[in-house]
Amino acid sequence: MFVVTVNDRPLQTPEGAPLAVPNRALADVLSAEWREHGDRPLTRLANTAIDRMPVLRLQALEAVLVFAATDLVCHWADAPLLLVERQRATWQPLLDLVAQRHQAHLMVTAGVMPIAQPRAAFSALRDALKAMDSFHLTVLHEATVLSGSLVIALSLIEGAIDAEAAFRAAQLDALFQAERWGLEAETAARHDSLQAELRLCARFVTLLGA
User: Fold this and answer.
1) Model confidence over 108-131: pLDDT tens digits?
2) Stated pTM of the model
3) Residue 41 domain flag
4) Has residue 175 been placed in a domain?
5) Engineered SS bond to 40: which of 33, 83, 104, 105, CB 3.0-4.6 Å?
């Protein structure tokens, strides 16, 4: 582990633990955040991983799995056809990827009808999450809440898609409607914020693997 320092002074988390991260690349970026005296979004994720995740790991894991029960990408429209085709083209590859990598075969439904996902899929996903360290699980939780989809978040965290693709997948329906009716300023601002947060998640994961 690498302790983050500023002017040779080791930094601590809000709970008083050493701000220590898995590699030098991430430590250097966090140190730069502190020297800039602005927002420290990457430091926030690291603090959560160090202070909160060890204590709340089980709760965080189960909270993420809740999303799989009603995952966004498993609930397709039944009309119009153009929207359905776009959902299939965007979401099906992500479902296939999760099935291939984790043997988690999630079912798809159309319209508003609920669907019970296979227990084996939940078991496989739980095993995948249990294998994650605190840093990866922290950013996965963040990306899942942001996107409304464990499938999208896993695809982002594992490098299968970038932040822009994750945003388009998460906001597919809204973007489809915007093409027809336009985008209100408030919605556009929310989209900008979501894109920025997803880019942050992607950058954090990239740095973890550096």
Assistant:
1) 999 777 789 999 999 999 999 999
2) 0.95
3) no
4) yes
5) 33
| Residue 62 pLDDT class (50, 70, 90 cuts) | very high
188-197 long-range contacts, CB within 8 A, separation 24+: 191/167, 194/146, 194/167, 194/170, 195/163, 195/164, 195/167, 197/142, 197/146
Q: Percent of the chain having pLDDT more than 90?
A: 90
For residue 138, the enclosing domain spans 55-208
What are the CA-CA distances from residue 75 to residues 110, 120, 154, 194, 206 (Å)? 6, 19, 17, 21, 30
Domain count, the chain: 1
In-domain check, residue 24: no
Report which of 67, 89, 189, 41 is spatially closest to residue 140, judged by C-alpha positions: 67
Are β-strands 75-76 and 109-110 bridged in parallel, bridged antiparallel, or unpaired? parallel
Say if 66 falls within a structural domain.
yes
Write the CATH number for 182.
Answer: 1.10.3580.10
Find where tokens 């970026």 sit.
29
Q: Tell me if 93 sits within 8 A of 128, measured CB to CB.
A: no
Round to whole Å and give the CA distance between 78 and 88. Answer: 11
Q: Cα separation of 99 and 84, whole Å? A: 21
